[in-house]
Amino acid sequence: MKALHTSAEDLRYYVDQVIDSTAENISSMLQDVRALRHTEIDYITGYLLKRARAHGVAVPENARLYDLVKRKESEYERVGTGLPRPW
Fold first, then answer.
1. What SUPFAM superfamilies does the annotation carry (predicted)?
2. For every one of its 87 residues, what pLDDT tens digit does the chain have, with 9 covering 90 and above?
3. Positive or negative: CA dihedral 59, 18, 6, 47
4. Domain range for residue 78?
5. CB atoms < 10 A from the CB of 41, how many?
6. Strand, coil or helix: what is 17?
7. What CATH number should be reported for the domain holding residue 49?
């Protein structure tokens, strides 16, 4: 993997542009959750967690997000099984 070098200001400018241009979008992951489908969390955040662990980098907020989405997925796996819902 090649490292990219950019200034914090350039990165912030880019992030702000993406936020502005996608503010009205509904993410595919949210669409999946609303439709009770499995998300791509394993391929996105799961991969990030694996790489972070390999490099000894702590990413607690990403791990928390991953756990929350996986918990939500497990809730709708219970639909129709007769198992009690967690809420």
1. 6-phosphogluconate dehydrogenase C-terminal domain-like (SSF48179)
2. 677 788 999 999 999 999 999 999 999 999 999 999 999 999 999 999 999 999 999 999 999 999 999 999 998 876 555 555 443
3. positive
4. 26-87
5. 20
6. helix
7. 1.10.1040.10
Q: Name the pTM for this structure.
A: 0.68
Termini Cα distance of the chain: 42
- What are 47-50's contacts with CB under 8 Å, separation 24+? none
Q: Which two three-digit tokens encode residue 79?
A: 């639909």
Angle separating helix axes 60-77 and 41-54, nearest 10 degrees: 150
Closest listed residue to residue 72, CA positions, set 47, 35, 44: 35
- CB-CB contact of 41 with 70 (8 Å): yes
